[in-house]
Design a protein that fits this description.
Blueprint lengths: L3 E3 L9 E3 L24 H13 L23 H4 L6 H22 L12 H11 L4 H28 L6 H4 L9 H7 L1 E8 L6 H7 L7 E3 L23 E7 L5 E7 L2 E4 L2 H5 L7 H13 L8 E2 L12 H6 L11
Parallel strand pairs: 3-4, 3-8
Antiparallel strand pairs: 1-2, 3-5, 5-6, 6-7
Helix pairs in contact: 1-3, 1-10, 3-5, 4-5, 7-10
This protein binds zinc ion (ZN).
Length: 337
């Protein structure tokens, strides 16, 4: 059930009706069911986006060509150093963030038996720690949970996700045709666009009729089955996230030809592509990286509408404002934790 109705500026656009999992977790209407709802955007995901926003444009010379994530891990040599490439500053910040998360979260393993102590913990971790209480050997379950979380921060996120996205065969496909002196927002949004559109349900009105009736250009009205997320089993559609249709949403239209909506969720946006959703431990896809570089270059947590309709700010708010106001991207080992 929607809990938040956000009116669009234009009277011919529908409201954005969001489920309780899309509002900030400090909001009285926030509700989230770890077992039944899609994965929450974890604090580390918001922070990594802010890291890449602060890190600045990523050039072709930053991208890996030969890296194979299978079997790679922290015991191996840093692939950038190995191949004589300069590492993107945003990635260096993100690796520092992963290490700091382990310190931030250490307290929750001590407080696992106390619901008040877990109130600020990331939703998934809090859920897993509550489960530890009910096992025959809680201490052992806690140790296993901690090891699992460490593996996520130390191996899965950097080595199997971020490094993989920072390859010419991944992020490179979105910037391949970008020419000119910068890889900033202007150049990136020439080949890739953020399009404001009205997304209709598949059993709702037909798009041309809806466009005519609401005096909208038919180019910016689409059924969710016509979006690229409908082509992949693991890619969620807006309605699967509980977003009421018709909805004004921001659609990423990419150089590769695909169109994936950004779904308002966990106080930010999540890309609906299959890479992001095929494995729940992945925290960033190439589209979200592009969005971070664009937003960072424009110095805002809101993605721009580069074409189409003026969708509500909530449909463009890429990062949680609360986390944006507290997170400081920095190089590992420098400054205070
Ligand atoms: Zn994506």
């Amino acid at each position: 059930m929607p809990c938040r109705n956000i009116r669009s500026d234009a009277s011919n656009l529908p409201s954005l009706s969001l489920p309780p999992g899309a509002v900030a977790d400090g909001d009285a209407t926030h509700e989230y069911d770890v077992a039944g709802d899609p994965p929450a955007i974890e604090p580390v995901e918001h922070e990594i986006r802010l890291d890449f926003m602060a890190g600045g444009p990523i050039r072709h010379g930053h991208l890996l060509t030969e890296y194979n994530s299978w079997g790679s891990g922290p015991d191996d040599r840093d692939p950038w150093r190995k191949h004589g490439l300069s590492k993107p500053p945003g990635l260096t910040y993100a690796e520092g963030t992963c290490r700091r998360r382990l310190d931030v979260e250490a307290q929750y393993y001590e407080l696992y038996d106390d619901d008040r102590g877990l109130a600020d913990a990331p939703a998934f971790l809090a859920h897993r720690l509550r489960q530890c209480r009910t096992t025959d050997h809680p201490e052992e379950a806690l140790r296993a949970e901690r090891t699992r979380r460490e593996n996520w921060y130390e191996t899965l996120i950097p080595w199997l996700n971020l490094y993989q996205v920072l390859k010419r065969s991944s992020y490179g496909t979105l910037v391949a045709d970008v020419v000119g002196p910068t890889y900033g927002a202007g150049a990136l949004t020439t080949e890739n666009e953020f399009v404001g559109m009205v997304v209709l349900g598949d059993d709702g009105p037909e798009s041309e009729g809806y466009a005519r009736e609401n005096e909208l250009s038919a180019e910016y009205v689409v059924r969710e089955s016509e979006l690229s997320c409908a082509e992949h089993e693991s890619a969620p559609s807006p309605s699967e996230y509980g977003i009421e249709l018709p909805a004004p949403l921001l659609i990423g239209r990419y150089a590769s030809g695909s169109r994936y909506p950004f779904l308002p969720w966990s106080d930010g946006l999540v890309c609906s592509c299959p890479y992001k959703h095929d494995q729940p431990w992945r925290v960033l896809c190439k589209h979200e990286l592009l969005a971070a570089i664009v937003a960072g270059d424009m110095d805002t947590i809101f993605l721009p509408v580069t074409d189409g309709l003026s969708v509500p700010h909530r449909a463009r708010r890429f990062v949680s404002p609360d986390i944006a106001s507290t997170h400081t991207p920095r190089v590992p080992g420098r400054g205070q934790p």
